[in-house]
């Protein structure tokens, strides 16, 4: 099959990896640096994507303004989630966050008139009238393509996603290396010790959650722009665990490990479907699509057994207590 | 002048009064020892004063301000800072970072300032690092500054906790068994530092300690607790002569 060799396909894999980089950075700041087990991270992605799409289609405001508001709404959702739950013990917090992301998904599924329901955003403007929220994005992308002298739309998208990912990566890198990031890490290690030294643990956890919410929402925006139509199914809890896989694959508390983990994940996830050589060729393409989940599982297990610190984590840190 | 004023603190766990109507004062710039047999309620009292536990009744005033409803971090910021019985080294941070974390009023701990005023953050960080290295020298941990705190021994972690607490520029330090697990030579040095800090900066200490020799030598006031209550408060000499104290430690006869 020629798919494996087509630039278009690999550009697509790259775009997915870029979106997952932005998404995974959110898990990195919350889990890798602050120690918050947010298992509902996908909710921020859903809120970012849906808010932008709904506002663009249903109100007169432009897509860019809608995107900014979407990020704001995601931050608010983060605060709403954090205020009652961050005082809970870590395991209870984790359970609550899964529930939170499922609530968001079920609202999207059942509030037909607001979200388009199970059919997704194609149904946003009601039956019979195909809704479009990404006209401004398409125009922007065409202009960017001409300006950058790029050959195809896919490559343009690749450049745009990764530009955003790298800017966010650098900003986050500066943030976590600052004294602010030091406080986050101290909370991950021992929040009582941090409090005894005058650090407002609750406030920093909220900030971490909010920063993660921004990254989740931006990932959601790019997701919406890449796929034009999306539905509640796209925001199942599994997506959150993909981000955890990426962070663990790359190494926790390492910002630069996220894009590497995301690229590896993208190749494994999107790539395996089209791997048409043995042993993959023994399965038909539909089975191969499921096989990739098994492959990811096996990689995670092997990683935990042989390299628990991930590709870029420090082994030393794993054995300290 | 009274720095810390504890009045009628009461806290029970499942019907047992761990702290029962406890009242005592700590004078500014003094060294006050809190002693008593195991289970007397000393650590519970520490936890209440530092805000980690709520009292059912009673008040804690520090420098004239009520503390009993405040959260631990606000009490620490007011200048009342504690250490823990088992030291709480942040193992995956370097020894230096452990101390830097305790720097008070650090603009770099505000995310907005990190990007808005990077130069102010850098210069504050540089000053904090000089102070942190000086404190690490004081407790003889400067050689380990760049190692993970998790590589330190138990005794060294006590010293790290001590350096970290000093970094917060406290007015009163609550030390929970600072000498336990520290070798005697280092313990002696730690005591010297405590006396020095009191002389030079007027820092007050309230410490739980089982080494009675040391308590009697170093402290100005001794508070004796037994079964949740304050048995007596006095100078080391007065406490030594008090028969109730001997009874509490050795068990009352008949």
Structure overview:
The complex is a heterodimer of chains A (321) and B (254). The mean pLDDT of chain A is 89. Chain A has 14 helices and no strands. Chain A has helices spanning 7-33, 42-58, 63-85, 90-110, 112-115, 135-148, 153-177, 179-189, 191-196, 201-227, 237-250, 257-271, 285-306, 315-319. Chain A starts with 6 loop residues before the first helix and ends with a helix. In chain A, helix 1 runs parallel beside helix 7, helix 1 (7-33) runs antiparallel to helix 10 and helix 2 runs antiparallel to helix 3 (63-85). By secondary structure, chain A is mainly alpha-helical. Chain B has 254 residues and is an alpha/beta fold. Chain B folds into two domains: 2-89 and 167-250, Rossmann fold (3-Layer(aba) Sandwich), CATH 3.40.50; 90-151, no CATH class. Chain B has helices at residues 42-49, 72-77, 95-100, 111-116, 118-138, 154-167, 184-201, 212-218, 236-241, 243-250, and strands spanning 2-13, 16-27, 31-35, 57-62, 65-66, 80-82, 172-176, 204-208, 221-226, 229-234. In chain B, a hairpin with a 2-residue loop joins strand 9 (221-226) and strand 10 (229-234). Chain B is globular, with a radius of gyration of 19 Å. The model of chain B has no long low-confidence stretch (mean pLDDT 91). Chains A and B meet through helix 7, helix 8, helix 9 and helix 10 of A and helix 2 and helix 4 of B.
What's the short version?
By secondary structure, chain A is mostly helical.
Structural descriptors:
heterodimer, A: ABC transporter involved in vitamin B12 uptake, BtuC, 0% strand, globular, B: Rossmann fold, 2 domains, 6-stranded mixed β-sheet, 4-stranded antiparallel β-sheet, 10 helices
- What is CATH's topology name of chain A? ABC transporter involved in vitamin B12 uptake, BtuC
Helix coverage percent of chain A: over 70%
Low-confidence spans of chain B: none
Broad shape of chain A: globular
